[in-house]
Amino acid sequence: MPQATLEQLRLDPNHPIGVSLHTHGVKYTQMSDGTVHSNSFVPPGGSRTYIWYAQPRNTNTGAQGTAGYWWYHDHVVGGPHGTPGIRSGLFGGLVVRRQGDPRPDRTYVLAFGDRQTINLRRSSEADTCDEQNPVPGPTCVVAKLGEKVEFLVIGIGDDMHTFHVHGHSWADTRTGVIEGTGALANSIPIIDNKTVGPGDTFGARVIAGESVGPGHWMLHCHMQFHSDLGMSTTFHVLDENGAMTAHAGHAPANPVQAAPAGGGQDAPAHGNHG
Ligand SMILES: [Cu+2]
Description:
A five-stranded mixed beta sheet has the order 6-14-13-8-11. A four-stranded mixed beta sheet has the order 5-4-7-12, with no helix packed on it. By secondary structure, the protein is mainly beta. The protein is built from four helices and 14 strands. Strand 4 and strand 5 form a beta hairpin.
């Protein structure tokens, strides 16, 4: 990279230029922390191997292990916290499973972030699925009817968000799946909306189209002013043949007028006083 370009990237003359890989949740020595603070970043033209360790639980020592839904990100671009690096997309998702954990058919990483973005896009740019040939990716969330779909939701930036998907719900457990049928299993809440703050990560496991069928299901932040500004995409559920169903469109051609309050001849009674 030309020196002039590097200098243009330098936001803080006292901060070195480079990139790094900093992860959450798993174990590493400080030499794999990915910070200027620990001198574990990569200067221009350099390279570095980062080593992470996944660990099982240890009931003898009380160590909780590293299974979970995590993310990794740059920590040095533009400043000691890598804020411009994260904002420009230098992040990703990391799943660590315990042996025997249920495996999904598909995993989508969805970062909810600043300026009402999902994976740094909003409105129509957040959903670029080609209806004839949908290619799964950061801006094309698609699955076939019945597939087990795992969402790894990441909060980036400065705002709180909520992850909400229409027509689907999941168990609020470590894996999104309930094991067993006892009283404890029955006490686990089933949810369809979950708060995600900056740096938070969680997994949500759904069965595509289960009990609701294929279609184009909205997936959005439920902070209303965020969704109104475009923090919304679509979970496309294909039919059993892998075909996209016809899109119903955003509004009916001939909108049906809502029945006025108070009801008319056909309005159902609101109570039974007999
Ligand atoms: Cu939001």
